[in-house]
Amino acid sequence: MRRGLLLILSSPSGAGKSTLSRRIMDWDPTIRFSVSATTRAPRQGEQDGREYYFRTREEFQDLVANGQMLEHAEVFGNFYGSPRGPVEQAMIEGRDTLFDIDWQGGQQIRNSALGRDVVSVFVLPPSIAELERRLRGRAQDSEEVIAGRMSKSRDEISHWAEYDYVLVNNDIDTAEQELRTILMAERLRRDRQPMLNDFVRGLNGEFERR
Ligand code: ADP
Ligand code: 5GP
After folding, report:
1. Whose CA is nearest to atom 26 of ligand 1?
2. Whose CA is nearest to atom 15 of ligand 2?
3. Which residues have C-beta atoms less than 6 Å from ligand 1?
4. What is the reported pLDDT for 66?
5. Of the residues 23, 65, 72, 125, which has the fewest C-beta atoms closer than 10 A?
6. Would you say 118 and 95 are in contact if contact means Cβ atoms under 8 Å apart?
7. What is the pLDDT of residues 114-167, one digit of tens each?
8. Cα dihedral 107/137/142/15 (nearest 10)
9. For the segment 57-83, what is each residue's pLDDT rounded down to a tens digit?
10. 101 CA distance to ligand 2 centroid (A)?
């Protein structure tokens, strides 16, 4: 069985990571979403344990101190981190894990012992005007929060070239198709198909029996 891979999606806030994540998991329900822990307050409709584990700063610091975080970072004044246990479990089960994390988290996982299992994808908006429209259209954040996120976008975008793949999310159907293509190709890499050794041995056995 192949090891699960770690699909990391990053983008400036509002470029469409969550939308793409939902779509790719509808397409392949075996993909596990890495539910992050965060100290930020839940948005309307968000449930503890589904979008995030909502934790106090103290609880978050304990998780970090106990080595339970694969990576963690401060984003927009709150802490965010990816719990380690479920990721390791999914890899053993041969299931892929999807991360919706910022560039700091992407960098930490890429530089960790799990680096060779990472496939990283950066999502760019078609324009900055459209990015702002999408942030407002989501209608879940205050003006102040939106302004803060816009001012951070440039910093996030500056890390685009650290990623294996880059998508421009103009049309969502096209972007989803491109993300599927990336995942399909990465799953077919020779080193992700350990079963091929036995398979080719079988083919050779067939040659010998002719
Ligand atoms: P992120 O997770 O990167 O912050 P979201 O997935 O929440 O971004 O998307 C922000 C908003 O933009 C949402 O309202 C979403 O429906 C919308 N959106 C995402 N992709 C597109 C697209 N290609 N065209 C138009 N709107 C989009
Ligand atoms: P939001 O508050 O909009 O849900 O997320 C804000 C930013 O934090 C997004 O860029 C998101 O990708 C990032 N983020 C969410 N979870 C994590 C995490 O576990 N680790 C890191 N490093 N970033 C995260």
Report:
1. 134
2. 101
3. 11, 13-19, 134, 137-138, 169, 171-172
4. 97
5. 65
6. no
7. 999 999 999 999 999 999 999 998 777 788 888 888 999 999 999 999 999 999
8. 10
9. 999 999 999 999 999 999 889 999 999
10. 4
Confidence of residue 177 (pLDDT cuts 50, 70, 90): very high
Question: What residues are paired with 113 via a beta bridge?
Answer: none
Closest Cα to atom 14 of ligand 2: 101
State the distance from the centre of ligand 1 to the C-alpha of 128, rounded, in angstroms: 13
pTM here? 0.94
Show the domains of the chain with their CATH numbers. 6-193 (3.40.50.300)
Calculate how far, in angstroms, residue 17's C-alpha sits from the geometric centre of ligand 1.
7
Closest CA to 104 of 82, 85, 123, 87: 82
Ligand 1 center from residue 137 Cα (angstroms) = 8
Query: How many Cα atoms within 13 Å fall on the side-chain side of residue 97?
Result: 25
Helices and strands: H and E segment counts in the chain: 8, 9
What are the angstrom distances between the C-alpha of 184 and each of 23, 72, 104?
Answer: 15, 28, 26
Give the amino acid at 95.
R
Cα separations (Å) of 139 from 14, 132, 143?
11, 11, 10
User: What's the gap in Å between 120 CA and the centre of ligand 1?
Assistant: 19
Indicate if ligand 2 lies below 6 Å from the C-beta of 100. Answer: yes
Three-class SS of residue 5? coil
In this structure, what token pair is assigned to residue 174?
């096209």
